[in-house]
Amino acid sequence: MANRLTQIATRTGDDGSTGLGDNTRVSKDSLRVHAMGDVDELNSNIGVLLCEEMPLDVRELLVEVQHQLFNLGGELSIPGFELLKPEAVAQLDDALEKYNAALPRLAEFILPAGSRAASLAHVCRTVARRAERAVVALDNAETLKESPRQYLNRLSDLLFVLTRVLNRMDGGDDVYWKSERMARAAAQ
Prior knowledge:
Elements: E1 17-19, E2 25-27, H1 31-49, H2 56-77, H3 86-101, H4 116-141, H5 146-167, H6 180-187
Antiparallel strand pairs: 1-2
Helix pairs in contact: 1-2, 1-4, 3-5, 4-5
């Protein structure tokens, strides 16, 4: 593979603009750049999550997610281009079905807590939701393909499910919210 980045500090962004993949320049506060940044932040947070112990199948899934998020970032950086395929969304749907089937049904809300790995997955989930909102905002201003929005929506759901999987790794459990209303109802 050829060297794609030969110079990192180009100083071309000193004026508050950045270059897109199609060689156009846009303001660093544009909706597109916000969406790209949120997707990049999500990918970086998944990289931190991957530093933790986890089942091999979850690790392999998250590594694939990182590749797909890189595709998504590339797609966002080139208006009108498609890198993230509908098959990537289908892969998340399959993973959601697989991992959720092995979990007990939720009877109460859970807190973003538990093991370190699960807590980091919760952070990834919240960043995925923010990235999804940024992509929706961009889609409202400029027409995008469906896959980016769908992928981020499914990914945030999957990350929630994976927090539950990770909390159960060594015999742990979710950390349940202590609802005052439900406590009163149980006491009666």
